[in-house]
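fyi for ur records
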Amino acid sequence: MARDIKNTAYNVRLDLVNDPSTIKNEEGAMYFYNGKVYYLDGTNPASELLDSGSVVTTDAVNIASSQWGTTPAAPVTLADGEGANGFTFFTESDKDPDGTTSYDEYFLHNSFTVTVIGGAGGDVLTVNINGVDYTEPFDTDQFTTANNWVNTHFAALRALTPRITPHALGSGADGRIRICSVFSNAAVLDGITASGTGTLAPTVGSEFNLANPAVSISDHIMIPMDLDKPYENVRLHHTIRVNFNIDTGSTQNYELSLKRMENDTTVGSGIKVTRDQDLTGNQYVFETYTTNVNDPFVTGGFYFNFMNDSGAAVTISALPVGILIQTVYQKPITF
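which gave:
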């Protein structure tokens, strides 16, 4: 007799079988065969369970990956004191299909920054995003004003589709609002304007687009754990490979670091990169993790920064560059 188990809990093991004739029919067990769930109740044939809900038939996976690779059109020279964001070398068209899984694919994100300049009590900051004015009164200093603006408008911006994520950076007279969104929303970011009353004179531009700060550029990745993923609050382990070339020359040291997008803090510590007279190629591996939906990699994302503090210029060669992100799930996940 068929048994309807809708809204019924069964604390039993569910076996996946290829040949149900080999199963001994003992009461209290279940098995899955040919798209149906059966309940073993001591009779023959075993009872088919009706309305047994969504039966998952796809294989669970342990690992996902996303990969980008390209060759820069021209060398990029960094003066002493300058840095380069690793993701700015890529667009989504540079994604490698062989290194990117069809499930849980990561996407590049862009950012555009409003820098709060000037201001005094009674002045009002206005940031226009996609035709909507988002305002905030000047308070104390530039950073406090930027931080208040983010707190005031965070929920409304995150509710948009595609969502927009703002971050306040700096301190005191250094007040910046870094406004982020997925690469496909770049036109909205590029259209952001800012103005102020009184002595407020904010500016707008990309912090990472060295060639053209007037437009946003891909500059970070966000881990989409909070976007209806089946691994919400499942610990993720990330292995990230970064490869690039620098022109040979006298021995100099630089720093490659993994940074949080929401506040520019470094994850762990930087890695020393050494230029020499023999080899251009460099490849490094970062090990990191995402813990839950409140993790900085989820709420803000991350980027790579190649920093030149050597006292002399360095040139990133017009040779292959790449980033591979491999994610291992704490337990097998079905998409």
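The CA atoms of residues 60 and 310 lie 48 Å apart. thats all i got for now
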